[in-house]
Amino acid sequence: MQYFTEMDYSSMMKELLELTRKNEALKLSYIGNTILSRPIPLITIGEGINEKGVLYVATHHATENICTSVILNFIDEYARAYNKNEKICGINARVLFNMRKIYIIPMLNPDGVEYRIHGIENDNPLYERMMKASQGDFSKWNSNARGVDLNHNYDAYFAEYKTIENELQITHGPTKYSGEAPESEPEVSALTSFIRYNIENIGAVLTLHSQGEEFYYKSRGECPKKSEFLAKMIARMTTYKPSSTDGTASYGGLTDWFIKEYDKPSFTLECGKGENPLPVSQIPRIYLNLRELLFTFPILL
Ligand SMILES: [Zn+2]
Asked: Which residues are catalytic?
């Protein structure tokens, strides 16, 4: 393990460029740009062209960027094992590489992470609006640059959520606002376009959030057949407990959308325990807890 610190956008990009320069097993590309024109990176590992590839997505929410450091440790460990032709969690890294493709989005919401860590710059065109929306405090900011919660912006039960949102008077701000329309946000639209285009290679999704040491895998109480088996395996491999979403959490998320759209498994993992943003001291515990799952998940499909 080598990433023990908090990642903002530039420190993550520096590490990703370094990792891809040193390791031929890693491919760096971009799925699109954020509202503030930051390219959203994608790391691809593996060459398997089949429906058993997987997609890992970290940091929809800006207070949860500990997940970016966790996933970087996975990318690094995989690349090292590949270079040395070694086994990890019982699987030879090169065999895994040839069999399965793993797509990784280490930080879906860079603009939000930048706001939360560094605040908003006064030449930002959204400055006035977002200062008002945050009341000048970005320490609990989860949304993107214009105050939309990305994990409520997917096209899943969006209209129903609008009713709840209106009742609760949720609007542009740090959390829970779903946006003008499904996929109105460039970050979500970049990811859904990427998924649509590559769906033949994506058999399941794992999305990393924090916190709670639990995971969600049903949408409206329903899930694809395969999900029950995978949920048992996740519960066995990690200390995380299966749970079900309730209240505002059960609308417009990536897991809801992926299940509804493709009837394929998707899991939302709530990493670590405590109050977001979790301290970086939790990175090793979270990574060691999820390590086996991250390496073996594609093989379980
Ligand atoms: Zn989250």
From this structure: 251, 270
Q: How far is the CA of 282 from the centre of ligand 1 (A)?
A: 16
207 alpha carbon to ligand 1 midpoint, in Å?
9
Q: What are phi and psi of 87, to 5 degrees?
A: -90, 145
CA of 60 to the centre of ligand 1 (A): 6
Domains of the chain by start residue, with CATH: 9-300 (3.40.630.10)
Question: What pTM does this model have?
Answer: 0.98
Alpha-carbon distance of 1 to 16, in angstroms, equals 15
For 79, list phi and psi in degrees, rounded to 5.
-60, -40
Above 70 in pLDDT, residue 249? no
- Mean predicted confidence (pLDDT) in 238-249: 83
pLDDT, tens digit, 9 for 90 and up, residues 87-135:
999 999 999 999 999 999 999 999 999 999 999 999 999 999 999 999 9
pLDDT in the model for residue 49: 82
